[in-house]
Amino acid sequence: MDLQTITHDIVIAGIGVQALLAIAILLKKCWRIYPAFSAYILFGLFESAILYPLHRENWNTAYFYTYWICEAICIFLGLYVVREIFIQMFEPYPALRRLARVVFRIAVAALVVSACFLVNMQSVDVHGLAKGISLANEAARLIELGSIVFLFLSASVFGLHWRQGIFGIAIGLGMLVAFELANNTLIWHVSKTTIDALNLAKGIAFLTSLFIWLGYLIVPERLTSRADVPRQDQLEQWNQAVAELISK
């Protein structure tokens, strides 16, 4: 069995798990707590449902344009999932939460400007446009991965526990983003065989992320208590300092 066949089977399995995850989101009404994450998952299922038949029927032109349009949408949905994670993390601290919103607005604005610049620097044909979007995707993934690494490093400070839903979202997204970043960075510079291996690794990472998210939705999460936050006073001081800075 070659790599392309294995990757195809993983894609089929991924669509099935995506459907289960979407059902779990709807049944548990997760969009009320995690609207960005819910939109990210539901759009991913919608994207798979459209792209798979286009690829299977060899409608290459339609597949090409649809893929890159969906990829552009996923860039911003992924960023908003990371934003949602930080907003949830800073929920008890209004000033820090407001600062997080401002930082992400600046990051998104910078990404839009960078994306326009990168696309403009490419050739005017469709392949140049695709590479421009891919470069913008790399920039977005770097922002997402850096933010998630910060989340993991500061988890104990904010009292996050591995059984909390927000932590599960971050774990799954971090794994997916890391593999997508490696794939998007290398895919333009390697051989056909290596591309097949990269696509297989990306498919496995995506399927693993889906199972992580599904597991966190099924298993009841542990709520955070004030005793779980070892530096509560320091966080309150940071919140007060940011509030004073914003009010000036």
What does this protein structure show overall?
- With 248 residues, the chain is mainly alpha-helical.
- The chain contains eight helices and no strands.
- The chain has helices at 3-27, 35-56, 60-89, 94-121, 126-153, 165-186, 192-218, 232-247.
- α1 runs parallel beside α7 (192-218).
- The termini are far apart.
- 25% of the residues are buried.
State the main characteristics:
Rhopdopsin 7-helix transmembrane proteins; 8 helices; mainly alpha; 0% strand; 248 residues
Helix content: over 70%
CATH architecture: Up-down Bundle
Oligomer: single chain
Order of helices and strands: HHHHHHHH
Give the overall shape, derived from the CA principal axes.
globular
Summed up, the domain count is: 1
Biggest pleated sheet: none
Q: Unreliable segments (pLDDT under 50, ≥5 consecutive)?
A: 224-230
Compute the number of strand runs.
Answer: 0
Head-to-tail CA distance between termini: 65 Å
Q: Round the Cα radius of gyration to an integer and report it.
A: 20 Å
Mean pLDDT comes to 76
The number of helices is 8
